[in-house]
Design goal:
two-stranded parallel ribbon, Glycerol-3-phosphate (1)-acyltransferase, 7 strands, single chain, alpha/beta, 8 helices
Length: 212
C-alpha cells in the first residue's frame, strides 16, 4: 500500500469499526498475492470501501471517468488504485485497464449486478463480469455485504448507524469454462460469459453472515 491508500484504508477501518460496529467474516479467503476478482453485491456507496478495507492487501476500484477530470480528485483516485470507467461501467478502455491490472497480479472489486439495488434485494448478474473472468486468469472470490442498504441506500441522505457485516466466500477458478471459451463459437462464448456471471451471483446469494 502506498501512503495515501494506507491513510484512506485506516480511516475507513476506523469508521466501520467505530460508527458501524462492523463484522468481518473469512477475509483470509482472499489471496494476499496475485490477480483476484472480488465480486460483491451492490446495495450502497458504502460497499466498495467496506469490502476493500477489510483486506490486508490493496485493491483496485472502479470510479466514474468524469471524476478524473478534476485535478485534486483525480490524483486522489489514482493514488487509491481507481480505474476510470464510463457511466455504464464498461467501455473498451476501462476493460483493457481492468484486464491489465489483473494480469499484473492486482486485485479488483467488481459488481456482477452492475448497479446498486433499488430495493435491497440481489439483482440478476450481467454478463460483463463473465467476460472479464474468462479473459483473465484471476481467481474470483464472491463477497456479500450486509446492512449497507439499510444504512445508506438510494433514498437515504445520511448514514444511519446500523451494524454492517461483510463475508468472503470460497475462491472460484472457472478453469473448465476458460478452456472451453478458447475453442467455442461466438454464440456459446456469450453463453459462457452469462453462465460465469450467474454462478458468481449464486455463490454470493448463498453467503450468510453467521454461516460457514
Amino acid at each position: 500500500m502506498n501512503l495515501s491508500y494506507r491513510i484512506g484504508w485506516s480511516c475507513f477501518r476506523m469508521m466501520y469499526a467505530g460508527y458501524f460496529r462492523w463484522q468481518v467474516f473469512n477475509a483470509e479467503r482472499v489471496p494476499l498475492k496475485g490477480g483476484v476478482i472480488i465480486a460483491s453485491n451492490h446495495a450502497s456507496f458504502l460497499d466498495p470501501p467496506l469490502v476493500g478495507s477489510a483486506l490486508s492487501r490493496d485493491i483496485n476500484y472502479l470510479a466514474r471517468e468524469s471524476l478524473f477530470r478534476y485535478p485534486g480528485i483525480g490524483a486522489l483516485l489514482r493514488s487509491w488504485n481507481a480505474v476510470p470507467v464510463d457511466r455504464d461501467g464498461g467501455g473498451a478502455k476501462g476493460l483493457k485497464i481492468i484486464l491489465n491490472r489483473l494480469l499484473d497480479g492486482n486485485g479488483i472489486i467488481l459488481f456482477p449486478e452492475g448497479t446498486r439495488t433499488k430495493d435491497g434485494k440481489l439483482q440478476p448478474a450481467r454478463s460483463g463480469i463473465g467476460l472479464i473472468v474468462i479473459k483473465s486468469e484471476a481467481v474470483v472470490v464472491p463477497v456479500r455485504t450486509f446492512g449497507t442498504f439499510e444504512c445508506y441506500n438510494r433514498k437515504w441522505k445520511f448514514h444511519l448507524p446500523k451494524r454492517l457485516a461483510v463475508k468472503y466466500g470460497q475462491p472460484m477458478k472457472f478453469e473448465a469454462l476458460r478452456a472451453e471459451a478458447k475453442t467455442c463459437d461466438k454464440t456459446r462464448l456469450k453463453e459462457i460469459y452469462q453462465q460465469v456471471a450467474d454462478e458468481i451471483m449464486a455463490a454470493i446469494a448463498k453467503l450468510e453472515p453467521h454461516a460457514d
